[in-house]
TrEMBL record:
InterPro entries xrefs: C1q_dom, Cerebellin_Synaptic_Org, Tumour_necrosis_fac-like_dom
Compartments where found: Secreted
Signal sequence annotation: 1-22
Residue ranges annotated for the C1q domain, each copy included: 108-245
SUPFAM superfamilies, per database record: TNF-like (SSF49842)
UniProt keywords, alphabetically: Coiled coil, Secreted, Signal
Gene Ontology cellular component list: extracellular region
UniProt-recorded name of the protein: Complement C1q tumor necrosis factor-related protein 3-like
Main location: secreted
Organism, as annotated: Scomber scombrus
Coiled coil: 43-105
Length: 245
């Protein structure tokens, strides 16, 4: 810039010379130089523009650099968010899988089936020997799922499964004490205490039976057997579903 101004001034210095000083040919030369000077001045003006544009371009470049920087940051942010989203997706998938499993196990969950009853629900019962051997447990503590019928003394399996049964018999030794656990009318397990002289006896037994829906389970007296119960709950019958099969 400084150099260019100096150059212009020098050229102008040469030109501001009285025409009469030189020869006539010098006048033509002078005109030529004038034209050259104008051209050079024009170039100077144009250079100013070029400089101005250069500044503008630099400013634009700075802005562009800023934009590029911002874009780079945003790209990094997008990458980070993408990764986060993927992680969330993975966790979501795992959670959904877990929920499916829970739903499945809820569907497979065993229905709630359990009962427990005692022979006498009032006063004293001394039952047997009789032809009506099925014991009807009248004092029902619980009967979830309504498998046990307190009018007949018969438990009917609501679903296929493995069931646990437990019973206790109590009586006096003038007779055989005990009862049989019957499945569909067939003897499974029993308690038994023969006639003796020691007053009274109590015994219990239990079994896990595989039943299909509709199978029946009940307690029956032995031939000539007798059992006793009162509100103390000596003679009892209980059962529940362990799990379905
Ligand atoms: C713009 O960025 C380039 C490359 O990083 C650099 O060479 C240049 O000096 C920067 N320009 C400005 C005006 O910051
Ligand atoms: C999540 O599950 C969907 C649908 O099953 C699947 O398209 C996607 O690839 C899984 N994503 C991950 C991260 O496991
Ligand atoms: C029970 O006792 C009676 C009389 O003592 C006897 O005849 C009978 O064989 C006994 N029964 C059993 C199964 O022990």
């Amino acid at each position: 810039m400084e150099f260019r101004s100096l150059l212009l001034l020098t050229i102008m210095g040469f030109l501001i010379v009285e025409p009469g000083f030189g020869e006539i040919a010098d006048l033509a030369m002078n005109d030529w130089l004038k034209t050259q000077m104008e051209t050079i001045m024009n170039i100077g003006e144009k250079l100013k523009y070029v400089e101005k544009y250069q500044n503008d371009i630099e400013a634009l470049e700075a802005r562009l650099n800023g934009t590029v920087e911002e874009l780079t940051e945003q790209k990094a942010e997008v990458t980070r968010l993408k990764k986060e989203n993927e992680d969330m997706q993975t966790r979501l998938n795992a959670t959904e899988e877990e929920i499916d499993k829970l739903k499945q196990s809820a569907r497979n969950a065993a229905p709630k089936i359990a009962f427990s009853a005692s022979l006498s629900n009032s006063g004293e019962i001394y039952k047997g020997p009789s032809t009506e051997k099925t014991l009807i447990f009248k004092r029902v503590f619980s009967n979830t799922g309504d498998g046990y019928n307190q009018d007949t003394g018969i438990f009917t399996a609501p679903v296929n499964g493995l069931y646990y049964f437990n019973f206790n018999t109590y009586g006096y030794n003038t007779h055989v004490i005990g009862a049989l656990l019957m499945k569909n009318g067939a003897h499974q397990i029993s308690t038994y205490d023969n006639v003796s002289t020691d007053g009274s006896d109590s015994s219990s037994n239990a079994a896990v039976l595989k039943l299909v829906a509709g199978d029946t389970v009940c307690m029956q007296l032995w031939e000539n057997g007798r059992v006793f119960d009162n509100l103390n709950g000596h003679t009892t019958f209980s059962g529940f579903l362990l799990f379905t099969v």
